[in-house]
Amino acid sequence: MSKPSLVIVTPALADANNGNWQTASRWARLLAAHWRVTLLKQWSPDLPGPVPDALLALHARRSAASVAAWAQRHPDRPLVLALTGTDLYRDIAVDASAQASLRLAHRLIVLQDRGPLSLPEALRGRCQVVLQSCTARRTLDKPADRLRVVAVGHLREEKDPATLLAAVRRLRPDEGIRVDHIGAALDPALGAAAERTAAECPHYRWLGALPHDRTRDRIQRAHLLVHTSRMEGGAHVVMEAVRSGTPVLASLIDGNMGMLGEGYGGYFPAGDPAALADALRALRASQQGPAAFSLAGLHAQCEARSHLFDPASERAALLRALDFSRSPSHPPAGAPA
Fold it and tell me: Were both Cys, which of 108, 233, 275, 291 would link to 127 (CB 3.0–4.6 Å)?
């Protein structure tokens, strides 16, 4: 029997090297044994070739045109929508095109456990959590003569690099804390701020954008990943750190709590550079003696959740989200007839 065909619409392809692309390309690999998958930036009914059996779109707002076109032309064929952080925590509250995508989708996917809470209650029954995954890497032995910190994320407002830069300026160069910052300057003003901080703070390096493999290597070698985002659908770098034996210090937002757990000990208030700097100092001190708040404690908590981000688990959740055999594919309320 031939495999059914699936188009994954992603607003970012390989040249963007961002979370949307990483998600789409990984899903294509995970589903390849069950679906014939094509990745597109936009779907149109004018595309040549046979009509796909189903469409999976990433991003309610940025893929809205593809979602609307599919629902109009093929209302009885499965339409699945995966929601990003900007969807969940901004766009679906204010953007008409994102709201329309929600109404049209037969199924919704969110990428962390607290994602459904941001949806209108009437839509939560269509929603499935698909925790993202990556391969596991062994935990490396790391010297305790300094705290090596890595932050990963393109420089844009949602990732809040300004909080990281302000925290770095609160640290003295002689405190034994070294911060490497990976990410392209999507906002030129934030890039200029990173350049100034690197020039004035010898304990901080802005490395710009790096290939994915090199970024994972740096995450694996660091003592700690710092993640400062203000909104997050389910950050790849958090999952990659957990699967590399590197604990995480993360902003206290739903997107991080949905991945690391509500009882996780490594949160700081979002947008609070003083709290972040204090937490880094405390974790540096924990390298030198017993402490209630320690790298070892955060590592143990991350290790306990690592299995949740296994590729086999992600594949199984994806296949459930795309299985319409037990629930007939029909247009949801508000879809075109």
Answer: 108
Instruction: Give the model confidence (pLDDT) of 172-222 as tens digits.
Output: 999 999 999 999 999 999 999 999 999 999 999 999 999 999 999 999 999
- Which range marks the domain in which residue 12 is found? 5-132+311-321
The answer to the question of residue 327 being in a domain is no
Domain annotation covers residue 139 = no
- Asked if residue 193 belongs to a domain, the reply is yes
Strands (E), 43-131: 54-58, 79-82, 107-110, 127-129
DSSP 92-116: HHH-HHHHHHHHH-SEEEESSTTGG
- Same domain? For 116 and 187 the reply is no
Q: Domain of 193: which CATH number?
A: 3.40.50.2000
Virtual torsion, Cα 299, 302, 304, 307, nearest 10 deg? -130
The model's pLDDT over 126-164, given as tens digits with 9 standing for 90+, comes to 999 999 999 999 999 999 999 999 999 999 999 999 999
Q: Do residues 252 and 115 touch, judged by C-beta distance below 8 A? A: no
At position 123, the amino acid (one-letter code) is L
Cα(54)–Cα(166) distance, integer angstroms: 46
Backbone angles phi, psi at 265, to 5 degrees: -90, -5
Amino acid in position 293: F
The burial of 54, by beta-carbon neighbours within 10 Å (0-12 exposed, 13-18 middle, 19 or more buried), is given as buried
Are 163 and 124 within one domain?
Answer: no
Max CA-CA distance within the chain? 67
